[in-house]
Fold Adenylate cyclase.
Amino acid sequence: MEIERRFLLRDDSWREHASAPQVLQQGYISVEKECTIRVRVAGNRAWLTLKGYISDVSRHEFEYEIPLADALTMLATVCPFKIEKHRYLYSGTRRFCV
């Protein structure tokens, strides 16, 4: 089960403690309240993720590593919704992903 928390940052001061960004490509095969199916590529690795609805802040999450070539084909052919994320690891007093 995944519990997602989001926070609004006051300023960019966190960047001095953050890693270089990891670029993620994501495509959504299905986006429904009951179940979201996502393909994600980060570097030379890829995952297929299914998220099932529990409540507005928690979901069942199942994630499987898949071959990179399969993920790239899925992104190109069956993912109508695509985004690119830049993820930073923050190592200040606590470790966060921004």
Summary: The two ends are 20 Å apart (CA to CA). The first helix runs from residue 68 to 77.
